[in-house]
Design goal:
By secondary structure, this protein is α/β, with parallel strands linked by helices. Helices cover 36% and strands 14% of the residues. Bound molecules: magnesium ion (MG).
């Protein structure tokens, strides 16, 4: 189980894991960050690769819910509809309310879900606090919201590696 700011797993992108890997790790559902995890921060266009990834997860019996801190419900709804996943906006991660609501939508306990996101101080910290497993993804695009840029500097100070090897293996602690 990850602790504090340390994720259980790291991948370059969400498309670097599939339903077979999730099943092998006894994960039944994902709580997915949206901005810079499944779409670029500035965009709402879901790539063909991510759409195919979501289809493969559904076909493999995996559940997923978007749990986003975004203040733009229309964007979150558009991305959720494109992926075929339920969605929540203004989740206020790392607080637990949004994660709990997402798990309730999926009908899964904390030990059955994986929190996936690109930020240590929201996605990973919140997931670890909720006793869920956590997966850190390399952010899709820059530039980011100025507050996020400041958080990145703090993440480096907290020991986040500056980059990930594309298609590298999952890193488990
Ligand atoms: Mg994000």
């Amino acid at each position: 189980m990850g602790r504090g700011l340390k994720p259980d797993f790291q991948f370059f992108a969400v498309t670097d894991f599939d339903s077979a890997w999730l099943r092998a790790n006894r994960i039944k559902g994902l709580l997915l960050d949206m901005d810079n995890t499944i779409v670029p921060w500035r965009g709402a266009e879901v790539s063909a690769a991510v759409l195919a990834w979501a289809r493969e997860l559904r076909a493999g019996g995996l559940k997923a819910c978007i749990v986003s801190n975004s203040r733009y419900p229309a964007k979150v709804a558009r991305v959720g509809a494109a992926l075929g996943f339920p969605y929540l906006h203004r989740a206020r991660k790392p607080r637990q309310g949004g994660f709990r609501a997402g798990r309730a939508l999926l009908g899964l306990g904390p030990e059955e879900v994986l929190v996936v996101g690109d930020q240590l101080f929201t996605d990973i910290l919140g997931g670890n606090r909720g006793r869920m497993r956590t997966c850190l993804i390399c952010p899709i695009a820059r530039p980011e919201f100025i507050g996020t840029t400041l958080l990145r500097l703090l993440e480096r100070a907290a020991g986040r590696p500056p980059g990930f090897q594309q298609n590298g293996p999952a890193i488990t602690k």
